[in-house]
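User: structure tokens for this one?
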Amino acid sequence: MQINVVGVKFKNSNHVYSFSPNGLKLKKGDYVIVQTEKGEDLGVIVKEEYQTNHEDLVSALKNVVKVASPEMVKKAEEYDKKAAEHTQKVKEIVKSFNLDMKVVKVEANFDNSKLIINFTAENRVDFRDLVKKLAEVFKTRVELRQIGSRDEVRMLGGFGPCGKICCCVQNFGEFDHVSMKMAKNQNLSLNPNSISGLCGKLMCCIAYENPTYQESIKLMPKVNSEVKTKDGIGVVVYNDLLDRKVDVKFVKGDESEIKTYSLEEIKFNKEQSN
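Assistant:
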């Protein structure tokens, strides 16, 4: 069955969630109040009304309650700034409980009815007594959210080894699986320290670029296979997968020479392709 939905994003998340527009005329960029499993929350429309199959939804469809006014959005930003000022105090309280956890970010929900503390930890943490203490100190409801190291970088931001803003901050929705095989496809160093991002895990861009490299691999001749060029028959010693160029080695007596050709300039048995 086809149903009408809109795509909504929340702060600190690149995932797009589906909600029923509930008869409202909504456009991209509108801030809205939506009903979630944990109560009402503030989000932004990133995908205008469209149809999808009801069977494709991963959870029960909830409604957009109303369009948020500019004043509500401004208030929410002010609440967040005020909540961030509590970060040091929260860290001190956590330290006093000797809990093995790292406070990443302190924020408020859109109507300031709850303090949200994002943290990382190697293992499961029993923070029941901590929550009681935090609620007592800040005189409000408190929610502790355990996040992963990649979520931490997305939340705090930063620059990758390439000098650009980390991919997780701006490009990706859900985090894709990244494997060493992908790195091998791209002729990258297989030393994890050389290809890891700020989060300590393999860089997201490896997965992002992998489909392009996979397509190139299918078109290129195998290394050590023979190819025919305008200069004669030589042996492939290197494939530049990104530019789709091939380094070919020619041997004449005791001398050898390496020349570079585009994929269109060589001929080879397609069965010898990767």
